Amino acid sequence: MKDGLFPLQATGIRIYIDAVDALSDVVQSEETMDIRTCRLLADYNTQTNAAMNSIIRSLSPAGWKREFQGYFSSIQSLCNHIYICDFNWLKRFSALRTYQYITDPVFENELNFGATVLEEIEEYISKREVFDKNIIQFTSELKQSDMDRILTYTDSHNVIHKRLFGGLVIHFFNHQTHHRGMISIYLENLKIQNDFSNLSDML
Questions:
Q1: CATH number of 34-147+164-202
Q2: Other CB atoms closer than 10 Å to residue 37's CB: what's the count?
Q3: DSSP secondary structure string, the chain?
Q4: Mean pLDDT over residues 64-71, rounded?
Q5: Section 94-110 average pLDDT
Q6: Distances from the Cα of 187 to the Cαs of 15, 51, 66, 82, in angstroms?
Q7: Long-range contacts for 153-156 (Cβ within 8 Å, ≥24 apart)?
Q8: For 20-56, what is each residue's pLDDT tens digit?
Q9: Is residue 42 within 8 Å of 34, Cβ to Cβ?
Q10: What is the pLDDT of residues 136-151, one digit of tens each?
Q11: Could you give the percent of the chain with pLDDT greater than 70?
Q12: pTM of the prediction?
């Protein structure tokens, strides 16, 4: 079908993707995203970044910027990409309703996709630590009723989307995990052992 809602089964969670302009603000479904999962993933993000960044802190400037065969070709570019995407997703999420986390002055800025906003390792780590606290605050403010609502947002190509809010929050955390995996591969190419991504240690 070209129009309508299409259910996708992903790890037992039904995610609805819309392809119509007129869409209800709330999706009526048998299953829903769980805010407890979102809060667990926020804690996981903070702890995993801390473990990963303790390794990144040991890199030389050359290791931080070394070019590899990847779309984001250095650890620096990956860290920038994750940070910028996290920043813009939290700004998008604030359009759903009033949240307090968005009053942080950091969100008065505009960060463009593809930009390099974090030049040095210590600058990156300092800003990442602060921003991870924003993510924790965001998930602490979530209500279960938020998860079944539809968020309308404009992407980096000026395309308007309407998506299930809870699904977007899961995408937000999954995106971080995906690119941290790339950082792990680059660290291995630098002959640096790393093992910072074990979610089961938190369960």
A1: 1.20.120.450
A2: 16
A3: --SSEEEEEETTEEEEEE--SS--SB---S----HHHHHHHHHHHHHHHHHHHHHHTTS-HHHHH---SSSS-SHHHHHHHHHHHHHHHHHHHTTSS--SGGGSGGGGS---TT-----SHHHHHHHHHHHHHHHHHHHHH--GGGGGBEEEEE-TTS-EEEEEHHHHHHHHHHHHHHHHHHHHHHHHHTT-------GGGG-
A4: 94
A5: 96
A6: 34, 13, 10, 16
A7: 153/92, 153/95, 156/88, 156/113
A8: 333 445 544 545 689 999 999 999 999 999 999 999 9
A9: no
A10: 999 999 999 999 999 9
A11: 84
A12: 0.84
The answer to whether 117 touches 111, Cβ cutoff 8 Å, is: yes
Asked if 165 contacts 151 with a C-beta cutoff of 8 angstroms, the reply is yes
> Residue 90: exposed, middle, or buried by beta-carbon count in 10 A (0-12, 13-18, 19+)?
buried
- Provide the residue ranges of all domains of the chain, joining segments of one domain with +: 34-147+164-202
The rounded distance, in Å, linking the Cα atoms of 80 and 82 is: 6
d(CA 136, CA 35): 12
